[in-house]
Structures are given as structure tokens and as C-alpha cells.
Amino acid sequence: MKQRIAWITDSTAYIPEDLREKYGIHIVPLDVIFDDGAYEDGVELTSEELYEKIEQSKTVPKTSQPAIGKFVQLYETLAKEYDCAIAVHLSSQLSGTYQTSKTAAAQTAFPVEVVDSQIVSYPITTLLCKGFELAEKGVDYREIAETLRREASRNENYIVIGKLSQLHKGGRLTNAQLILGTLLQIRPIFTIKNGVVELFEKVRTENKAFRRIFEQLDRARSLHRVVQVEILHGNVIDKALELKETIKSKYGDLEVLVYPLSPVLGVHGGQGTIALTWTNEETES
């Protein structure tokens, strides 16, 4: 008899509604904190509303992990209907959400395997989908969690920041850096490696940034099996769809998905940010 596994993640993951309904995924929201109060990510604040409020605010809002009580209450409720659970959260290096989820699980009698995705956004969903496949084959929930922990290291991602002004407003750029960067059209490319955000490279102009990322995609495809690319955007759907067409014309065999960044991620990336991400799978022998 298959285990009744509950699936949990947090609001930084983008979960399409059909997937959420099919597998009954439980999403615990983080908070976005403005001067006028805290808003639950994706529940009380949409991405569009976030950017409007940021434009009107003199400071960039803060973000906060869910309170431990939210997890404890969820796990106690799930224990009545499920045998066990797997919770996949954003990188433990970027938020305390993973540790809070673990601590909450230890406080209940409900068996929960908590997985550090080492990433954010749709790559978390990719891990969950891998978990669903294994669960349908009857694999034990602990083994599924171990597999997902190994799979997490296969993600490759590149993030092009949309507005340097938001980095400046958030205190991550000085006035001089903002002025120089704007004049020279500098586009920093970041990547998340081993759960930590790192500067990959600084290039001139957005087009050069994407050409540089395509070079990385070419390299990845020469070494691994890459079947899907995800484009994640900060409220710039037209730009994201244009980029999708460029990728499809260059790599006709790739599936390309386009999704928005959650409000919590929008706080740190800013409007106009575009991220490309994919999974480097083992080549078939």
C-alpha cells in the first residue's frame, strides 16, 4: 500500500494551480513587510501590487520567514490525514524557512522530511515534480527526500537584475555605483550556487547579458542532458515571452516555461529582473 504523502513548500516556489490541485500541495507564505504592515506573500500581496508599492515607497520592504506556529499547526493538521510529509523549501542560506520547518516538524509526532532545495522559485517545483514521480512508483518518502537532496545540486541558474535603482534603494549600491552603472548600462549577472547568491559577471547592456547566459546554456548542453529551461520574470511578461521565442528559435528541442517571480523574490530582485534556470541531468548512455 502506497504511503499517503503530504507535500509542502513555501511561497517563493511558483506552483501552477493545476499542479497544486492535483497533488494537494500546501504552500506556507513568507511575509513582505512595508512601513504600513506585513503582507503574506502571494496571499495578501500579488507581484503587481508589490512593484506598485515599491515605486511609491522611499525604502525597499523587508521580507520575513513564516512564524514557527504556522508550520506546527500545518503539520498537526496533516497528521490526521497523511502518513508522512516531504517539505521542500528555498535555500537555507537565503532564509531561515528551512530550519523553522525542521524545528516545527521535530515538535510534532508527524514524520516530515525537510529538503533544502538550495535554490528559489520554479526549480523548487521541478524538485517536487521529481518527488511526485517517485511517490507514484511507491518509493519510500525518506528515499524520495534523499533523492531530492542530490537532485538539488543539478540546477544551474543566471539572474539579470532589472533595476539598479532598487539595489541602491535597498542599500546594496552606493550613489557612485548607481550613477556609474546607469551611465555604462551595467547589467550584473548573479547565480545561486550551493544555496548562496554570487556575482557571476558584470556586462554592458542587457542583450550582452543574455548572450553570455546562452553561452553557459551551450556549455551545459555539451556536458549534460538539458530538456527544459525556465524563464522567471519580475513583472515583465512581454520581455520574458520575447526571450522565450529567442530560445525556441535557437534551441528547438527545449521546452521553455515562463513564470513570474513571487513578491518575496521581487523584493530582492526588483521589477524587470529576468532569471534563466535549467537542470543538468545525466546524459543517457
UniProtKB/TrEMBL annotation:
UniProt-listed SUPFAM superfamilies: DAK1/DegV-like
Listed name of the protein: DegV family protein
Organism for this UniProt entry: Brevibacillus ruminantium
Lineage start: Bacteria, Bacillati, Bacillota, Bacilli, Bacillales
Domain of life, source organism: Bacteria
Keyword hit for Iron: no
Pfam families: DegV
Keywords associated with the record: Lipid-binding
InterPro entries assigned: DegV, DegV_C, DegV_domain_contain
Transmembrane segments: none
